[in-house]
Amino acid sequence: MTLRSLTREEAAQRSSLVSVQRYDIAVDLTGLLEGSRFSSVSTISFTCREPGAATFVDCVADVERATLNGTELDAGSIADGRILVTDLAAENVLVVEASTTNTASGEGILRTVDPTDKLVYVWTSLEPDEARRLWACFDQPDLKAPHAFTVTAPESWLVTSNSAPESVEPSGESRVWTYPPTPPLSTYVVVVNAGPFHEVRVQHDGHDLGFYCRQSLVPHLERDLDELVTLTRQGLAFFGERFGVPFPQERYDQVFVPNLGGAMENWGCVTYGDGQLFRTPPTHAQRSTRAEFVLHEMAHMWFGDLVTMTWWDDLWLNEAFASWAANWGLARATEFSDQWAEFLAAMKRTAYEMDMSPARHPIRSEVADVSGAMANFDAITYVKGQSVLHQLVAYIGEDAFVEGLRDYFSRYAYSNTRLADLMECYERSSGRDLSAWTTAWLDQAGPDVLALEGTDLVADAPPGQEPRPHRLALAGYTVAEGQLTETGRQHVEVSGARTPVAAPEGDLVLVNAGDLTFAAVRPDESSRRLMLVHIADFTDPLDRALVAATAGQLLLLGEVAPREVAGALTRAIAAETSPALVEPFLSQAIGVADRWAPAGEAPGLLSDFADAVLEVVDRPDQRQPALRALASAASSEKHWAVLEEAVAGSSDNDLAWRMHARRAELGQYDEAAVTRLLESDPDPDAHMRRLAVLAARPDVEAKEEVWRAFFVDYSVPASRETLVLGATFWRPGQAELLKPFTLRYLEELHTLKGGLLNQGLTIRAMYPLGAGDAEFLAAAEAASEDASLSAYARNQLKANGFVLDRILAARKL
Question: For this chain's UniProt record, which GO biological process terms are given (predicted)?
Answer without folding.
Answer: peptide catabolic process; proteolysis
